[in-house]
Amino acid sequence: MHPLDLTWIRAQFPALAQEVNGHPAVFFDGPGGTQVPQRVIDAVADYLIHHNANTHGAFATSRRTDETIDAARAAMADFLGCAADEVVFGPNMTTLTFAISRAFGRDIRPGDEIVLTRLDHDANVAPWKALEEQGAVIQMVDIDTEECTLDMADMARAIGPRTKLVAVGYASNAVGTINDVATITRMAHAVGALVYIDAVHYAPHGPIDVRALDCDFLACSPYKFFAPHMGVLYGKREHLARLRPYKVRPASDDVPDRWETGTKNHEGLAGVTAAIEYLAELGQRIKPATTRRAALVQAMEAIKAYERGLSEQLIAGLLAIPGLTFYGISDPARFDMRTPTVAVRLAGRTPRELAEALGRRGIFCWDGNYYAINLTERLGVEADGGMLRIGLVHYNTVEEIELLLEALNELRIGN
């Protein structure tokens, strides 16, 4: 039995009360961005009413903005398991990754190697491939196309004495595969390489402990875990201090400020703190905890367990649909290696046609490649519209899954 109170959880998210064409809205679009709790909306509005100013001024609203930034750093540090000064904010994960890759590129020499994967979102591919212009050699790790998992033997081949960095996703935003990032980090560190983890997709689905992982960088997007759209980067303090960012001259050279180009999204940061507080309260409702970090870990462990149950129901139902092709891990015994995000195709229907038909019934799913273009090309579906992606989070229910399965069965050609 999972310990989540779904009635309380769903009451926190006002968007879930919407209807489309007389149907209840079913948000299976979580991998592209989740809905937000009311407290996040309230925090953004409160900032704009009572705090709205730029930083480091000699007046009240500016001091409140400084406090807003500090609170968001502390909240994200508790979420990730790091120190507050190892948290960098930016407009999105992609922009932050380009900033790090440009700085990292200052030290790249011709022949230095960077290891990437075909499973990743292009935000963790393109910023590093750009360094080919400076002589970097890209090693691309392949996948097992049967289950859409990384080929770890190919990973071992790719990592060698000339490797300077390994960039890998914590989990696939397209097919849900959770990668063995701890093992990959050890392999990279064994040859003196740095590790950059894209945790955007994984973050809403399980606890993160960057200290235990020992990764050098980890990027995520609070927009994917119940906050406004912005990016967050964890970086080991030594790397944030050593690498040289591109920045304007008057900007602080302190860590982590030196990485935050321009004025930050202050109202968004207020929303980030509120989202973390929502998750912490969820954890406290499960079992009283003495620290916010402990409450967050409890919440994310409970979310992981609940979503595994959803995955079992969803995937079993999908596999029973005639003419449906399923991409990714489908064996329930291995669901600890996946998130509740799945990708499918249905014979006779393009992914766009399915998404449009489901959308008319109030069921929101994505179609296309979701920027995981190396994966859709490797699977041979890019030219045919990619795949239909169904992405669940912890506010989704078994009843919503039943609605989806019923609709897909009705949409089968010849049904």
What do these coordinates show?
This protein has two domains: 136 residues, Aspartate Aminotransferase, domain 1, CATH 3.90.1150; 235 residues, Aspartate Aminotransferase, domain 2 (3-Layer(aba) Sandwich), CATH 3.40.640.10. It is α/β, with parallel strands linked by helices and 415 residues long. β5, α5 and β6 form a beta-alpha-beta unit. The chain is 40% helix and 16% strand. The protein is built from 14 helices and 17 strands. The protein is globular.
Instruction: Tell me the span between the first and last alpha carbons.
Output: 36 Å
What count of domains describes the coordinates? 2
How confident is the prediction overall: mean pLDDT?
97
- Given this structure, which CATH class of the largest domain is correct? Alpha Beta
Estimate the global geometry from the Cα principal axes: globular
> Which sequence of strands runs across the widest sheet?
4-12-11-10-9-5-6
Give me the CATH superfamily of the largest domain. Type I PLP-dependent aspartate aminotransferase-like (Major domain)
Q: Name the structural class.
A: alpha/beta
Number of strands: 17
Number of helices: 14
**Which CATH architecture of the largest domain would you pick?**
3-Layer(aba) Sandwich
Beta-strand share of residues: 15-25%
Low-confidence stretches: none
CATH topology-level name of the largest domain: Aspartate Aminotransferase, domain 2
What does the radius of gyration come to? 21 Å
Helical coverage, percent range: 25-40%
Q: Mind describing the biggest β-sheet? A: 7 strands, mixed
